[in-house]
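B., you asked whether I could sanity-check this one before it goes into the benchmark set. Here's the sequence:
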Amino acid sequence: MNGKQRNKPTTVVDGMPLSSALDEKMIRRVVHGFYEEIRRDHLLGPIFNAAITPEAWPRHLAKMCDFWSATLLRTSRYEGRPLPPHLTISGLGEAHFRRWLALFRATVKRVCPPETAALFMARALRIAHSFRLAVAFNRGEDTIHVKPILEESLCSDRASE
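And here's what the prediction gave me:
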């Protein structure tokens, strides 16, 4: 190990050290693979496909790559507010977030080594909970009953969903 490697600080995200396997290429594979699944999904596909026109998908994918790069690699590429578009989706509920998380988990497990998949999932679970709270609050609902979705409670196969 040379001096440069030894002195390089370890980046910690959500209490986990950032794996050297995580890079922009992996983020792109996760984002593109995930949204490919989303667009075909029976529950989420109609929502996303109604909100994002075919010609807008490349821009959306680039923005989501920027989001995950900023979130996990601590780059400063993402500019935006991800919550407001979700607040306008009528009927958005726990089933949608569970499906989003299940598809996301399947994608990161397929694309990433286990420690990197765990990092992605830890952040995705926190984002989902934050969004669920915001959606409930925005609708004037009591947020005290909005409990975090736990990864172990997600369905693991498409047949059961």
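One thing to flag: Helices lie at 3-7, 24-40, 45-51, 57-73, 83-87, 94-111, 114-138. Otherwise nothing jumped out at me.
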